[in-house]
Amino acid sequence: MARIIDGKQMAEALLAQVGTGIAERLARGQHAPALAVILVGDDPASSIYVGRKLRACAKVGITSRQYRLDRAVSQAELCDLIDRLNADPDTHGILVQLPLPAQIDANAILDRIVPAKDVDGFHPVNVGRLSTGKGQGLVPCTPLGCMMLLDSVITQFRGRDAVVIGKSNIVGKPMALLLLERECTVTVTHIATQDLPGIVRKADIVVAAAGHAGLVRGDWVKPGAVVIDVGINRIALPDGTTRIVGDVCSDEIAHARAYTPVPGGVGPMTVACLMANTLAAAQDLDRPG
Ligand code: NAD
């Protein structure tokens, strides 16, 4: 029977570790790390995600400041806010909740955040550090959390076949780079990939991040594979209610070695990794020289 990787429990452990790191900062006379969260408009899903991040901040002792902007905000106004936060010594992390409204050039906004405060790890400098394997950059929270979940069940990555389903800048690409860094043989697949089932069948590690409910069927998964399900999909049930499911048919993969459930797998780890990144950013910014 496949083992269920408990992301909630692992996230609690990581949050406790971050809390300890913050207590040590305070004991040294340093300030608590401070995270600025910018939310544009009133998208319900974005509000839920921001709420979770703010609650996690309160739990571990990170000071959070929320900037709620009207959905009609201009590029210039948003840039001004980021410039102010970049220059503010009391702000250690800056997060812009995506998606942004159509009138905003999201890439230009993400590029404007100074790399040292880019706790989402989306700035080209941090992306470059990850892709050159130089380390020391901030790594996107979801793939970072996925690696920790994989680390809880896999001791030897070197030479394993891994497949990443999805090639987004937020999940798929950074995930592939992290697996490559561990010397896995990585195949990145996407919507135009031919024979996805055939590619998945060869993989020892499967990371599904397509946003397609139940895409990965049980007979695609090799016996003994480890499956990380990143997808978050809301599906309608016959009784008129809805349910959140992942990209993997988890009831069909008893022959896997281990898998993450949805909910309760990658999601909580993503939030906990944001807290870890914010603490890391504060430590680096406060380092003399
Ligand atoms: P995205 O829409 O930016 O990218 C989806 C990727 O999947 C694309 O590269 C696309 O080519 C590929 N894809 C789509 N359908 C496919 C198919 N049928 N076969 C193969 N490839 C396919 O999405 P994203 O931001 O990368 O997010 C992916 C999923 O992960 C979504 O469900 C999202 O909600 C979820 N997500 C979860 C967390 C978390 O914390 N758990 C964080 C980020 C994203």
TrEMBL record:
It catalyses: (6R)-5,10-methenyltetrahydrofolate + H2O = (6R)-10-formyltetrahydrofolate + H(+); (6R)-5,10-methylene-5,6,7,8-tetrahydrofolate + NADP(+) = (6R)-5,10-methenyltetrahydrofolate + NADPH. InterPro entries: Aminoacid_DH-like_N_sf, NAD(P)-bd_dom_sf, THF_DH/CycHdrlase, THF_DH/CycHdrlase_cat_dom, THF_DH/CycHdrlase_CS, THF_DH/CycHdrlase_NAD-bd_dom. The keyword NADP applies. Residues 140-283 form the Tetrahydrofolate dehydrogenase/cyclohydrolase NAD(P)-binding domain. The gene is folD. Gene3D superfamilies: Leucine Dehydrogenase, chain A, domain 1, NAD(P)-binding Rossmann-like Domain. Catalyzes the oxidation of 5,10-methylenetetrahydrofolate to 5,10-methenyltetrahydrofolate and then the hydrolysis of 5,10-methenyltetrahydrofolate to 10-formyltetrahydrofolate. NADP(+) binds at G166, K167, S168, I191, I232. The keyword Iron-sulfur does not apply. GO terms for cellular component: cytosol. Its EC number is 1.5.1.5, 3.5.4.9. This is Bifunctional protein FolD. Keywords: Amino-acid biosynthesis, Histidine biosynthesis, Hydrolase, Methionine biosynthesis, Multifunctional enzyme, NADP, One-carbon metabolism, Oxidoreductase, Purine biosynthesis. NCBIfam families: PRK10792.1. Residues 5-120 form the Tetrahydrofolate dehydrogenase/cyclohydrolase catalytic domain. Belongs to the tetrahydrofolate dehydrogenase/cyclohydrolase family. Pathway: One-carbon metabolism; tetrahydrofolate interconversion. GO terms for molecular function: methenyltetrahydrofolate cyclohydrolase activity; methylenetetrahydrofolate dehydrogenase (NADP+) activity. GO terms for biological process: L-histidine biosynthetic process; methionine biosynthetic process; purine nucleotide biosynthetic process; tetrahydrofolate interconversion. It comes from the Bacteria. Homodimer. PROSITE patterns: THF_DHG_CYH_2.
